[in-house]
UniProtKB/TrEMBL annotation:
Residues 24-278 form the EAL domain. This is Bifunctional diguanylate cyclase/phosphodiesterase. It comes from the Bacteria. Keywords: Membrane, Transmembrane, Transmembrane helix. It comes from Dactylosporangium salmoneum. The chain holds residues 486 to 774 of 774 of the full protein.
């Protein structure tokens, strides 16, 4: 009943639609079932070096293969999962799956494997007891050295000293820490003094019109200067055009991800892409500015 009909009488996807449907249908119970029923799966988006297009890592992104709704993107269920607390078991599954996949790539692709997998972690997970022990346990279970894992937290997730302590424990164990969607929250600058972060991910909202909107270029410039002064690495998100990539390289950004390089891919497609990588990197070098 809640599906909306397009002009031709077929169903069309309306942003926010699944949130409404699923909320009505007790998302909590269904998402919990989804985990048990194996309806969640991960795609992996390459994170590339901007100067030659070489894939250095991937970001794991969760999707829900819903029996009636089809593939539901995370924006439609992660916010609700955060509210209900279900993001904790969901996040635990994501972390284990991503670590297991990274271990398989390292074993199967050898030097062609991306060197790390980056996993989004919600604020609720960070404040959960034993989160760092859980992460280290997942790494140990699949035999993945910690340096092959990055975790992405948003500025709003790092709420207190306890969350910082958790990140410090992970950092001390060699897990890489990135601040995701950097620049979109109010607390960014103070956090850089206390949070043991190694990487800033410049939010897509500062990239989308970077070549035409002077204020976006100004923010991107301010962020890279700050990152360089603090010796942090940078990943620019949401790069869709060669002009954006050229501008970001010019400003000094080292890494990026976006549809220009690749959409998020199933693991087999990511592996195939990695094996074809030397040729791709060679092509990218030719149009480096
Ligand atoms: P994010 O962590 O900032 O991830 C980047 C999002 O931007 C992804 O959307 C990705 O598919 C999209 N993207 C990448 N390149 C481009 C581009 O060139 N143009 C545009 N327009 N978009 C691009 P996705 O997969 O829908 O994920 C949305 C958000 O959901 C993520 O944003 C993250 O906050 C959250 N999320 C995804 N997976 C997980 C997870 O396992 N756990 C948690 N807690 N959150 C997750
Ligand atoms: Mg992310
Ligand atoms: Mg992001
Ligand atoms: Mg973002």
């Amino acid at each position: 009943a809640a599906k909306e009909r397009g002009k031709g009488g077929h169903f069309v996807y309306v942003p926010g639609m699944t949130t409404r449907i699923v909320a009505h249908a007790e998302l909590g119970a269904r998402l919990r079932d989804a985990i048990d029923a194996g309806q969640l799966f991960l795609e992996y988006q390459p994170i590339v070096r901007l100067d030659d297009g070489h894939t250095v890592g991937t970001e794991a992104l969760v999707r829900w293969r819903h029996p009636e709704l089809g593939i539901v993107p995370p924006g439609e269920f992660i916010p609700a999962a955060e509210q209900t607390g279900l993001v904790v078991p969901l996040g635990r599954w994501v972390l284990r799956e991503a670590c297991a996949q990274q271990a398989r790539w390292l074993a199967g692709l050898g030097p062609a494997a991306p060197s790390y997998v980056s996993v989004n972690v919600a604020g609720r997970q960070l404040t959960e007891a034993d989160f760092s022990a859980d992460v280290l346990g997942a790494l140990a279970d699949v035999g993945l050295p910690a340096r092959h894992l990055m975790i992405e937290v948003t500025e709003t997730a790092v709420v207190d000293a306890a969350a910082i302590a958790v990140l410090e424990a992970l950092r001390d164990a060699d897990v890489r820490i990135a601040l995701d969607d950097f620049g979109t929250a109010a607390s960014s600058l103070g956090l850089l003094l206390t949070c043991p972060v190694a990487t800033l991910k410049l939010d897509r909202s500062f990239v989308d019109e970077i070549t035409t909107v002077a204020r976006q270029e100004a923010v991107a410039t301010a962020v890279i200067r700050m990152a360089q002064a603090l010796v942090l690495s940078t990943v620019a998100e949401g790069i869709e055009t060669e002009a954006q990539a050229r501008m970001l390289r010019h400003l000094g950004y080292t890494y990026g991800q976006g549809y220009l390089y690749s959409r998020p891919l199933p693991p087999e497609a990511l592996a195939a892409r990695s094996l074809a990588a030397p040729a791709l990197a060679g092509l990218a070098v030719q149009h480096t500015s």
